[in-house]
Specification:
This protein is mainly alpha-helical. The protein has helices spanning about 5-15, 30-45, 45-55, 65-100, 110, 135-145, 185-195, 210-230, 235-245, 250-255, 260, 265-280, 290-305, 310-320, 325-335, 340-360, 360-365, 370-375, 375-385; strands at about 105, 125-130, 160, 170-175, 200, 210. The longest helix has about 35 residues, at about 65-100.
């Protein structure tokens, strides 16, 4: 987007999520500007949040009526989806409680409870942590009538609930996080999270949520993992801002002291710069000193890639039908984020090449050389059989 539209978006986000914000909207946008801004909100999955601010703007500063109407309908749909998601999370909580299992909803619906309006955050899936470890959780799920698919046997931390009930995708986590690619730092992080996840409390919607301290560490690692792999969007940035706003000084100090041990310091410095630049967060609320150079680069990648980087990935795949060109562009994308988490990027590349060489014989047999298959050879091997 153009600079004017970016600044307008940042103002709208600050107005929407900060109840103490006294900011008045200072931009007069054309119809085309509003269309572009609306498209960016859809791309970043923040249309409901932005509409929260737009609905409070003076009439002469609002978008054209047709855009407002479209935006309002989208916001109402998001509210309805949130209510459905919350009800399903509460129902699953009770089902597992009947089996004697302690649970907590990670990320999405738990984050939404921190917003001024808990129904404006764009919904995704339900990530439900269930205590007891992998074998215990598998046994409980089978007892409850759920199937464990072969694809989920490869996952080190979660399984997909099958069948999906009420059309809502659900992941059952038997570990509180997937960690990061730096194995030693990830082990330290997971030990902390395994201990802290025990401190849950029942939320207003009928499901349990983990502590803010847990969420600050877990979601920062989640941001780093996805940012290195494919990208993140403003939805994840907003969530983290809300966590910081609801955190105590003691929470922030403890996580700040562990950033290096957990292997997430560089990404945190970039993220803190974005918090200051976009949301005008005071440095006293930050976890570490912001890094402007890394922050500007992260912000540019977020704006280009959209939610979880899907637009950047699609662009890399569609820009050329030539396998070699796509291959080189994906390799370059990995190394372009090297300084955010050097060890993670190197481990990611080593894993890529290991899968690449393991899958050569299968790929020759199938005569398929898509970039996606190259990095997911276990599924290709299954297809070959």
């Amino acid at each position: 987007m153009e600079h004017l539209e970016n600044e307008a978006l940042y103002e709208l986000l600050r107005m929407a999520v900060d109840e103490d914000c006294t900011l008045s909207f200072s931009h007069r946008l054309s119809s085309k500007d509003w269309e572009n801004l609306h498209s960016e909100c859809l791309k970043q999955l923040i249309a409901g949040v932005a509409y929260q601010a737009i609905s409070r703007l003076p009439r002469d500063l609002q978008p054209p009526h047709k855009i407002v109407l479209r935006w309002a309908l989208e916001a109402e749909a998001i509210k309805g989806q949130n209510k459905l998601l919350n009800a399903e999370a509460a129902r699953l909580t009770e089902l597992f409680a009947a089996q004697g299992c302690k649970t907590a909803v990670l990320k999405g619906p738990a984050n939404a409870l921190l917003y001024p309006d808990p129904y404006i955050r764009q919904v995704g899936d339900i990530d439900l942590w269930v205590d007891g470890g992998r074998d215990h959780v598998f046994a409980v799920m089978r007892k409850m009538g759920y199937k464990i698919h072969e694809r989920d046997l490869y996952s080190p931390h979660h399984v997909h609930l099958d069948p999906e009930e009420n059309g809502i995708p659900v992941e059952i986590h038997y570990r509180p996080s997937s960690g990061i690619r730096n194995l030693f730092a990830s082990a330290r992080l997971l030990r902390f999270l395994e201990s802290e996840i025990q401190n849950v409390e029942r939320g207003s919607e009928g499901f349990y949520v983990p502590s803010i301290k847990f969420a600050l560490a877990m979601q920062l690692a989640h941001i780093q993992l996805h940012f290195i792999k494919d990208g993140i969007g403003f939805k994840q940035i907003l969530d983290y801002y809300m966590l910081l706003k609801h955190s105590s000084e003691d929470n922030r100090r403890e996580i700040a002291n562990r950033l290096s041990d957990f292997g997430i310091l560089r990404v945190c410095r970039a993220l803190m710069w974005i918090m200051g630049y976009v949301f005008e967060l005071d440095e006293s609320m930050m976890l570490c000193k912001p890094d402007e150079k890394l922050g500007r680069k992260m912000l540019a990648i977020i704006q280009k890639g959209g939610n979880f980087g899907i637009y950047e990935m699609d662009s890399l795949n569609e820009i050329s039908k030539n396998f070699v060109v796509r291959f080189l562009k994906h390799r370059w994308r990995n190394f372009s984020v090297f300084w955010f988490a050097p060890i993670d990027v190197m481990v990611s590349e080593l894993d890529y090449w290991k899968e690449f060489f393991k899958s050569i014989s299968v790929r020759i047999k199938l005569r398929r050389w898509s970039l996606w298959d190259l990095s997911h050879s276990k599924y290709v091997k299954k297809e070959a059989r």
